[in-house]
Amino acid sequence: KAGVTQTPRYLIKTRGQQVTLSCSPISGHRSVSWYQQTPGQGLQFLFEYFSETQRNKGNFPGRFSGRQFSNSRSEMNVSTLELGDSALYLCASSLALGRETQYFGPGTRLLVL
Amino acid sequence: DAKTTQPNSMESNEEEPVHLPCNHSTISGTDYIHWYRQLPSQGPEYVIHGLTSNVNNRMASLAIAEDRKSSTLILHRATLRDAAVYYCIPVQGAQKLVFGQGTRLTINP
């Protein structure tokens, strides 16, 4: 079974632009979560989607948004990029909500100049 | 969210056992204790989880204290591939994983 895939793997943007990252979960998984990893703040939870609905949200500004499609694929969007948004963005999928094991993708490394 | 305390770093030798401690004194009675690890340049990967009793799988063993305020991840025979940052995470019903700083494990050949 294929693992979690994320595209693109690397991305360079400039301040003020917006970016969309994509995540394809493991086949059959219906829950997708997003995390941001930076050297200073470590791994931080962004949001979680299940059945196309956002179920949980971390403490990030409204510039960070996401959605989930009927096939469980998910996208996250960051508008009006700031230098501090440079990070590794990780997507994780799991079978369902609850204390299910999460399976992480390799991440998208975003650099904002 | 329950807070966790882990050593910043640990070092061990190849083929020796490694015991990675974690304190989670504010854990609630229904929180499971999950361990994930992150190898260099990869996303985190699940290692093991438990609630009250000790657990074993092909990767590791998890020993949970009777009062559940601490746990220890045990790698029985460390290999170079086990060099990673290990995270201990109390997990409630929701899916949100709250990662601390973790323990950076170095394995010497």
Topology:
The complex is a heterodimer of chains A (113) and B (109).
Chain A: E1 5-7, E2 10-13, E3 19-24, E4 31-38, E5 42-50, E6 53-57, E7 64-68, E8 74-78, E9 87-94, E10 103-104, E11 108-112
Parallel strand pairs in A: 2-11
Antiparallel strand pairs in A: 1-3, 3-8, 4-5, 4-9, 5-6, 7-8, 9-10, 9-11
Chain B: E1 9-13, E2 18-23, E3 32-38, E4 45-50, E5 55-56, E6 61-64, E7 70-75, E8 84-91, E9 103-108
Parallel strand pairs in B: 1-9
Antiparallel strand pairs in B: 2-7, 3-4, 3-8, 5-6, 6-7, 8-9
List keywords for this structure.
heterodimer, A: 113 residues, mainly beta, four-stranded antiparallel sheet, 53% strand, globular, B: 109 residues, 46% strand
Characterise this structure.
The complex is a heterodimer of chains A (113) and B (109). Chain A is mainly β and 113 residues long. Helices cover 0% and strands 53% of the residues of chain A. The termini of chain A are far apart. Chain B has no helices and 9 strands. In chain B, strand 3 (32-38) and strand 4 form a beta hairpin. Chain B is globular and about 40 Å long. The interface between A and B is medium-sized, with 27 and 22 residues.
